[in-house]
Recover the amino acids of this structure.
């Protein structure tokens, strides 16, 4: 299977500290790939590098066959930042319509994107008056409105209620079934089981790059949280 | 630049402003209240022989100065918010061009500046009997160009501020010297040579000269058009400089 994203020997320093230590990995097309790891492990930095907004030290990131950050990728990649980056002093609909125009789409697509994240009834509310979970879904609608080929989502399900969370994951898989590639980060291990593939990252190093089933098999446990722990202990044992 | 994106960006900024009714009210009302103050300060001052009354002289310059200071502040904060809330980073991952964003701000807040100076001009001419030899519409035009200049300077300066505290400190740095040296307090030709040289380098001086030309001449003069062109040129230069401060990649 060819990769929508391929990362080779990526090194990134931020604020004088090495955040990514030569990561190499791939994100296969048409899958939901989970990027999992604790807070501060480098997930956001890796995602920023994929979207092309991160200054990188060395290594290469290719996205849809082009170097990350290429101008023509801006129509083909959707990015959801961790903090909701939408205009608090506009309504949900106004936000979606603005980002729709930037991606060459119209009002119909904007309204559909708002409905798809379950905000149809709040469409005319100012984003500043929404709850945290609703605000982050408004931001998600703006990332999906252009129907990008690659969607990079930084912790999209934080603060969502369990029913909505299940709905969102169902949506992600429906998108993948239609050929969209999704890279989704999370620090919650129970979300790992929902992914087609997993990238486990800790302290800027890749700990695993496999399917959830293979990670379970390799570590001899059904619990992915426990599996992650064993992988880390094994990795530390090797370096000692 | 892309026409559809520029129009959508301008519309988006104006829509944000429209949702903020208190800001709109302050933008429209505050200059007129300040003009009232200026009127009562100078109402009993005798007019200098041969020249305009002191109120006419000061109020005319104030009509250009209010949009300058207010649009500078509003823009600095608006752009800083784009940076701190992450919307700027997100915008730069989309097909939006840097100049689409910057000219969008220039047009949107420029229009707000024109609205503001139209209201304060109506108050100055109708309520306080401001008299100028030239047309009031030229005053509004110059005030509008001045507002765009202020927006451009605000966009540029906001790149050097990380917090709102820092951003508002740029107001005295950028605005105060231009006000002191624009010819309102001491006529420019009576200043020391080096002060005149500094004044010549500051764009607000030309806006003030253009307004004084409107005050003294019935028809627009060549000097006035030259001054307007200089202010507009400075605005475009500041917008291009501001574009250079926008980085799609950061650390």
């Amino acid at each position: 299977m060819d990769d929508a994203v391929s990362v080779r020997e990526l090194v990134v320093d931020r604020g004088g500290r090495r955040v990514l230590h030569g990561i190499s990995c791939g994100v296969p097309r048409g899958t939901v790939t989970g990027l999992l790891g604790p807070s501060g492990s480098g997930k956001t930095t890796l995602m920023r590098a994929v979207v092309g907004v991160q200054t990188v030290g060395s290594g290469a990131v290719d996205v849809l066959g082009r170097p990350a950050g290429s101008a023509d990728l801006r129509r083909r990649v959707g990015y959801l930042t961790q903090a909701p980056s939408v205009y608090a002093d506009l309504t949900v609909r106004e936000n979606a319509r603005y980002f729709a125009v930037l991606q060459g789409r119209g009002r119909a697509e904007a309204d559909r994107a708002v409905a798809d994240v379950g905000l149809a009834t709040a469409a005319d509310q100012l984003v500043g008056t929404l709850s945290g979970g609703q605000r982050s879904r408004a931001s998600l609608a703006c990332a999906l409105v252009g129907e990008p080929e690659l969607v990079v989502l930084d912790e999209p399900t934080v603060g969502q209620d369990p029913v909505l969370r299940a709905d969102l994951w169902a949506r992600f898989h429906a998108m993948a079934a239609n050929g969209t590639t999704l890279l989704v980060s999370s620090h919650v291990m129970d979300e790992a089981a929902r992914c087609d593939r997993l990238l486990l990252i800790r302290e800027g190093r890749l700990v695993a790059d496999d399917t959830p089933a293979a990670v379970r098999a390799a570590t001899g446990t059904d619990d992915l949280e426990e599996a992650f722990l064993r992988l880390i202990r094994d990795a530390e044992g090797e370096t000692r | 630049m892309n026409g559809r994106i520029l129009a959508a960006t301008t519309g988006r900024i104006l829509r944000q402003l429209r949702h903020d009714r208190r800001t709109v009210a302050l933008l429209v009302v505050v200059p007129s209240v300040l003009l009232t103050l200026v009127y009562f300060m100078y109402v009993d001052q005798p007019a200098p022989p041969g020249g305009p009354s002191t109120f006419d002289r000061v109020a005319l310059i104030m009509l250009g100065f209010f949009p300058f200071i207010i649009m500078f502040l509003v823009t600095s904060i608006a752009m800083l918010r784009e940076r701190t809330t992450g919307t700027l980073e997100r915008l730069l991952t989309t097909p939006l061009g840097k100049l689409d964003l910057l000219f969008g701000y220039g047009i949107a807040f420029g229009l707000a500046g024109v609205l503001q100076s139209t209201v304060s001009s109506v108050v100055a001419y109708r309520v306080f009997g401001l008299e100028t030899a030239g047309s009031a519409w030229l005053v509004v035009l110059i005030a509008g160009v001045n507002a765009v200049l202020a927006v451009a300077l605000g966009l540029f300066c906001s790149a050097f501020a990380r917090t709102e505290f820092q951003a508002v400190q740029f107001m005295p740095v950028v605005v105060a010297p231009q006000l002191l040296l624009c010819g309102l307090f001491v006529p420019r030709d009576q200043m020391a040579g080096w002060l005149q040289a500094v004044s010549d380098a500051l764009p607000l001086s030309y806006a003030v000269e253009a307004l004084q030309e409107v005050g003294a001449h019935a028809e627009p003069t060549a000097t006035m058009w030259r001054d307007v062109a200089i202010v507009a040129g400075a605005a475009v230069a500041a917008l291009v400089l501001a574009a250079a401060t926008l980085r799609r990649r950061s650390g």
